[in-house]
Amino acid sequence: MSDVKTYVAGHKSPDTDSICSAISFANLLTQMGTPATPVCAGEANKETTYILNHFGFEHPQIVKNWEEFAPEGGNLYLTDHNESKQIIDGYKSMNMCGVVDHHRIGDFETDGPVFMRLEPVGCSNTIITKLYMENNQEIPKGIAGLMLSAIISDTVLFRSPTCTETDKEMAHKLVEIAGVDIESYGLDMLKAGADISDLTNDDIVRTDMKEFSEAGKTISIGQISVMDTTDVLAKQAELVAALEALRTANNYDASYIMVTNILDESTTLLFSGDVEAVVTKAFEKEVKDNGVFLANTMSRKKQIVPPILGAMK
């Protein structure tokens, strides 16, 4: 057996699908004869912490830089991302082996051929569930719980426009194994993630933050989902100031935060930077105080990123 270690990692500013997909895919590789270790790029958020505790999993080890964590290198699989700015720093020192993702294809490059599984579904764990089934691998109860939770999270309990019939089909197969009531458990899980009472303004604007590049410019887009946006939007000016501090510190051309209302399925998009014209062009909506209200909007990858990047061209 090779002494080279194999790792599976999600993206920076990890969300539930990022961490759970690293765990579930590492388990699949291990069951199929390639021992793999899941890691993550940062602390789990409240929703993910609730999930890990509920199904009895330890928090994966946090890795900030691959060159420092694994100076002798190793094999690396990515889940839930493929854009270079979202990958843990120092990844070029690793032997890239594969990607499982459900986002757009960015600027990802490898030195040689790798395993790639990308599908236009609502969640990376939907794809991983299919991989278990296609390879005739048993899905342990706890792993089923993690994958189900990720699907619930990414599709917002099937409310998101990114949700597909495949997501629903895989989720209902996982429910039978995980042994939970999908509605009651799903709402409890989402409520746990929606508690922002102890978050600072800086914490809020950095929630689930991802970087994107277009036309030589780099932006950040975060998302925080709550049951009621009243308290968050009451301090809109403070959040815009926190976005500006974030933008300046990282030399972004713009920084955005989606404040998403889970119950009425809407988003207020706040931003900093000289991009009012971009936002107006992207959404054809009135911009006020560095913000725009977007009804029937919950998905960053489908409803926010494409129009913004398109307007930047």
TrEMBL record:
Enzyme Commission number(s) from the entry: 3.6.1.1
All residue ranges annotated as the DHHA2 domain in the record: 186-312
Domain of life: Bacteria
Catalysed conversion reaction: diphosphate + H2O = 2 phosphate + H(+)
Residue ranges of the TM segments: none
Pfam families given in the database record: DHH (PF01368), DHHA2 (PF02833)
Keyword Hydrolase assigned: yes
Single GO molecular function: inorganic diphosphate phosphatase activity
Record keywords: Hydrolase, Manganese, Metal-binding
SUPFAM superfamilies recorded: DHH phosphoesterases (SSF64182)
Record has Cell wall biogenesis/degradation as a keyword: no
Matches recorded under PANTHER family: BNIP - RELATED (PTHR12112), MANGANESE-DEPENDENT INORGANIC PYROPHOSPHATASE-RELATED (PTHR12112:SF22)
Protein name per its UniProtKB record: inorganic diphosphatase
Highest classification ranks of the organism: Bacteria, Bacillati, Bacillota, Negativicutes, Veillonellales
